[in-house]
Specification:
By secondary structure, this protein is of the alpha/beta class. Helices cover about 30% and strands about 25% of the residues. It has three domains: about 90 residues, 3-Layer(aba) Sandwich (Rossmann fold); about 210 residues, UDP-N-acetylmuramoyl-L-alanine:D-glutamate ligase (3-Layer(aba) Sandwich); about 140 residues, Protein-Tyrosine Phosphatase, Chain A, CATH 3.90.190. The strands form four sheets. Strands 8-7-9-6-12-13-14-15-16-17 form a ten-stranded mixed sheet, sandwiched between helices.
Length: about 475
């Protein structure tokens, strides 16, 4: 990358993605002039960018490149044919990808703590950043989401560590490799590995190949911190070139959670390090996967030499990330939660966790299959099992269904009918306002509604809150 002047103008195409938005804030905090453009501009990221003073243009247009920026960062959802990208190429403007910009501008001379895995990356990144911050290690970090504890989703500090999420999705149309391969981890966390991203990976083997590559980047004086409950992860560790510590709930892990107690406010559990008890711990979120997220952070902290007693309180205080089991409110006894789940496993684990935490009343799952993988039929059969912990399931359409290409498309309406055949209360509804109205007409005090989508979902969350208030 070219050397940038202190007040250089950097423009981000597709700036409202969770990672791109956080990067935009980090760039502006370093004194760059930052602008961006996107078509998917919705809260909470749109509100964050506005508060940061970052100008976001709606849509993609060559006019957004005036005055001409010194550097353009191209989001991984942007492909050839995008009018703004085509103008960048025709004008000969310098451009790069998000992970390359992070590497070149911020990661040099820092020890990267890279959080990877199919699920739990954002929460574990925020949790690890919070833990290291609270014990005085002064880490830099970039969270691909909006943490509720940290003042902002980014920081560049004087400490040696940089905590960031390492996504296995590709980097840009011109860099078809996993983002995490640019980050050169000193510490690599692997939460889990499953098949995902059916739009770019043919099968699980291709995903495993990418993880094998990043494992091979960890130096011999670094650490691979991995979930020992995951068979795929364990198989990769057999030939690991660096020290490994396993965490999880199974007996063979180095750091293990035991004696879990769940209540409506979270979970309490013991942690053992091999044969040594590290005492009782508490986190404020439900689900076994959140225990594993916490174990990952504690394992990293322990390896860095943080005393156990210094970690216990920060872990209990951690309150999560926006759109990750985020409680939006309780209205007339109805609990409303927003979640980012968009993979069958994440949906299933979210619902199992919420069912355990809120056993009274019905659990309503409201799902928008917004990811590129969900445009395809790939996971349709698995979703039939994923929703079994819910009492009722409301399904919305696939946004931009043309992303399925020549593959068989996912049909939410067909899935809804299959759920009904299994005895589940379910319906398909294309209109967000109609979803909100029907929910408000049917839910009762003690019920829990959880919205699950990695997209905007037509602001159905706000519409439902308004509909619940209106029925008072």
């Amino acid at each position: 990358m070219q050397t940038l002047q202190k007040h250089a103008h950097i423009h981000l195409i597709a700036a409202c993605g969770t990672a791109m938005g956080s990067l935009a804030g980090l760039l502006r905090a370093q004194g760059y002039r930052v602008t961006g453009s996107d078509t998917a501009v919705y809260p909470p990221m749109s509100e964050f960018l506005a508060a940061e003073g970052i100008e976001i243009s709606i849509g993609f247009d060559p006019a957004h490149l005036e005055p001409r920026p010194d550097l353009v960062i191209v989001g991984n959802a942007v492909s050839r044919g995008n009018a703004e990208l085509e103008a960048v190429l025709e004008l000969g403007l310098p451009y790069t990808s998000l992970p390359e910009a992070l590497r070149d501008l911020f990661l040099r001379d820092r020890q990267s703590i890279v959080i990877t895995g199919t699920h739990g990356k954002t929460t574990t990144t925020a949790m690890t950043s919070w833990l290291l911050d609270q014990v005085g290690l002064n880490p830099s970090y970039l969270v691909a989401g909006l943490p509720r504890d940290l003042p902002k989703p980014y920081r560049l500090s004087t400490g040696p560590h940089f905590v960031l999420e390492g996504d296995e999705y590709d980097s840009a149309y011109f860099a078809k490799i996993a983002k995490f391969l640019f980050y050169r981890p000193k510490i690599l966390v692997i939460n889990n590995i499953e098949f995902d991203h059916a739009d770019i990976y043919r099968d699980l083997d291709e995903i495993v190949r990418a993880f094998r590559q990043v494992i091979n980047q960890v130096p011999s004086n670094g650490l691979i911190c991995a979930c020992g409950d995951d068979e795929v992860v364990n198989s990769l560790l057999q030939a690991a070139p660096a020290p490994c510590l396993r965490f999880g709930l199974d007996d063979a892990n180095d750091f293990r959670a035991i004696d879990v107690e769940v209540d409506s406010g979270g979970q309490t559990f013991g942690i053992t390090h091999r044969e040594t008890s590290l005492g009782r711990w508490r986190i404020g979120a439900p689900g076994a996967y959140n225990i594993r997220n916490a174990l990952a952070a504690v394992t990293v902290g322990h390896w860095l030499g943080i005393p156990v007693e210094d970690m216990r309180s920060p872990m209990a205080q951690f309150s999560g990330v926006r759109r990750r089991q985020e409680e939006l409110g309780i209205i007339d006894g109805v609990r409303v939660i927003d979640d980012f789940a968009h993979h069958p496993t994440a949906v299933e684990q979210t619902l199992v966790g919420l069912r355990a935490a809120h056993s009274q009343g019905r659990l309503w799952a409201v799902f928008e299959p917004a990811s590129a993988s969900n445009a395809r039929k790939t996971f349709e059969d698995r979703y039939l099992a994923s929703f079994q912990s819910a009492d009722a399931v409301v399904l919305a359409p696939v946004p931009r269904p043309e992303r399925a290409g020549e593959d068989a498309p996912f049909s939410p309406s067909r899935l809804s009918l299959r759920l009904v055949e299994c005895g589940k209360l379910s319906w398909f509804e294309p209109d967000a306002a109609a979803i909100a109205t029907r929910l408000a007409e049917n839910v009762e005090a003690g019920d829990t509604i959880v919205f699950m989508s990695n997209g905007g979902f037509g602001s159905v969350q706000t519409k439902t809150l308004d509909a619940l208030r209106a029925r008072r």
